[in-house]
Automatic annotation (TrEMBL):
Chain positions covered by the region annotation Disordered: 27-53, 525-552
GO cellular component: gamma-tubulin complex; microtubule; mitotic spindle pole body; spindle pole
GO molecular function: gamma-tubulin binding; microtubule minus-end binding
Keyword Cytoplasm attached: yes
Keyword Cytoplasm: yes
Protein name listed in UniProt: Spindle pole body component
Lineage: Eukaryota, Fungi, Fungi incertae sedis, Mucoromycota, Glomeromycotina
Amino acid sequence: MSGKQNLGSFKSLARGIIGASAFVQESKSSKASPAEPVKRKHRVKSIGGREASSPKSFERAFSELIIGSLPTQLQEYAIIEDLLFVMMGIEGKYIGVNKADGLTEEIRYIEGIDYVVDSTLDPSLKDLAERILPLATYYTAIGAFVETYSEMKYGFVNHALCGAIRELLKEYLILITQLEHQFRTSSSFTLQKFWFYVHPTLHTMSNIHSLVMEIRDNYQESMEDDDSINGYDELLNSDGFSKKNSIPQQVKGGGILSILSYRMSQMSGDPDTKKLYVYLLSKASKPYISMMHTWIHHGEIRDPYDEFMIQERKNVKKEHLKEDFNDTYWEMRYTIRENTVPPFLIPFQKKILLAGKYLNVIRECGIAIEEPRKKTIDESVAESKADRTDVNMNSDVLLAMDGGRFVENIEIAYKRANRTLLDLLLKDQQLLARLRSIKRYFFLDQSDFFTHFLDLAWSELKKPSTQVSITKLQSLLDLVLRNPSSVAYADPFKEDVKVEMSSVGLVEQLLRIINVEPTAMTRGGRAAEDLGGRRGEESDGEGLDEGGGERQTYAPSVIGSIIGSITGTLVGGHSTGGGKQLTGIEALSLDYVVTFPLSLVISRKALTKYQLLFRHLLYLKYVEQLLCNIWTEHFKSFHWREESGHPSITAWKNRMYALRQRMLVFIQQFSYYVTNEVLERQWRILQSNLAKLSTVDQVLEYHTDFLDTCLKECMLTNAKLLRIFAKLTHTCVLFANYTEKFRKSLMVLKSQSDGNNSGPVSLEQQEKTLHKFEDNFLYHIKLLIEALNFYSATETVQFLCLVVRLDYNLYYYNQPSKR
């Protein structure tokens, strides 16, 4: 409707209304005479003594006219004219803006202008007009929403939604044009017909208005919540999530699609409204589905406004996998935005995430990702038979989402990406061969090479760890591995094995691999500081007669509970405090060079667990070797084999032989349990699982479970068990180191028994020293057996296998406790 046409029709209607008014007033004031019709005809041109021939005089006179004083037909024509203007947001003569609501112009514009009708209008016409007026309010509010949310910062989904609403508003304006045409050309066009024509549109506009107001309300609530959390944006940025704008997730991207799909599901009894939301959902979801297509087929996130359900952490890089023991590249590089996934994608969110993650790994390996051919997709759809039983894929959602095509696309993309990455890991990167190689070195499997290495490097490993030459050790290891007589000679990955010296003891290394909350780590640090004094006292006492002994109360074991409790109580080779410097054999460890994408599976965290198990095994072998050396000394030395001729000395020697044998049996049985009943058994389970895996995540899961189970069943995640075991092994090491003193004492005792007083050594003193070793070993092995029985009921029954091996004939069970 042009402005000139509106003004012309408005003026012509005004002339008619003014003329009719003059006629009514004249007929009331005087009676008619033959000559008066001419006068009335002449007086129609003037009101109040002023000529009404000019446009301004017409408008001024019309504006002062009260519509209720006009005939009903003219009132109807006037109000229809006003409604046509008001429905487009233009204020009329008799329909004005309600300024009594107390709202500002800006708020009134956003929420929709509320109009009021002249109170003098005929009641029936006024009622019809008030029924039609909500259209004008809806139109202004919807128009303001479209104008605001079409800005770039609101994202592609809002742009698409505004485009769809703009199309509906265009149809609305076409309807107004058609109504105006009827009003100008048809003499039978009435306000009742006007209402009849706009009534269906009123329902549609009401639903659109309700939608846009819900989106606005969600925006306001989200902004208030964000304002109540200080530093929220900075926290996100510090975590590595890109924060491109301040628009809340609830009113863009998946949040908008969630609102639309929910409204559509709630309108199952209203076909017209459901059809409206199906249309809006189909239009608004197109950019979102396009982003999803790019993600699941290319592994890329093209999301400049943070709308997509997958978010990326820029600061989490694959290079950290080889450096940080606690790196979470696979878990944290790409994650799902909580509470912003559209309902129709919730059943597929994991597959969507994994499909893109798999392709992203392949892309970062430098392998080109080809777009799947349409023919291939069609064929795969027919064969895949995607399962939709777990999703509410009703006909409306299918209609809105291109007939459910996206379901098959997700299934196809997921299977394709998963198979491609699996082939890359298992075939190109030879994952299984790599794991076998790691097992050979870190679990000392077929370790003839390592025995040879220890023999060659023993002079270096006896030194303090800070004085050991790593270069020399690496040269010796390379020499051993290249020996044609060694089992490792045929290993194609032997060049990736490296020697390293740990600067910390076993306990501190445990703290780095145990998966705990940051708050628990903080508490553990404080606990370690509090126990510093106790740790120094125990280190001075060498752990033999540590008054008070162990408390026989067993708290439930939780992985991570060892952070504070072990640090202050372990001694000997498993201790890092007390001023005792680690020797080379105690600090010796291995490392393994792994490249991406194998570093996803064999990450620094996994390698640290392998290193922990290696150091545990190596220490067992070291203690066993010390005890075997004592056995050799007892067997070969003349002083030990010779009959003393003194019953007390013979009894003392027999007690020493028995204690040595009990210690050796304990270490050998424990080593057998660790290697054969834990590591080897779990390795067989891992091999079985890897032979039948179907997804990449299963590879990560099986490998992680393998290592965690090995650590748990080797007693490396339980504070109580590890503390007792450390004291037992330390007792064995002290006993082995004290053997030379026992030998010298034996020589003196024999000399004394022959009548030669050659020293102050007394048999009573030696028996007392030996008794301390016996008492300490017996107490702690009984305590270990009791703890294993307890934790076999709360953690793993595998501990019972160790109990049977350590006390198969109930020897220790029947021994009276000396403490």
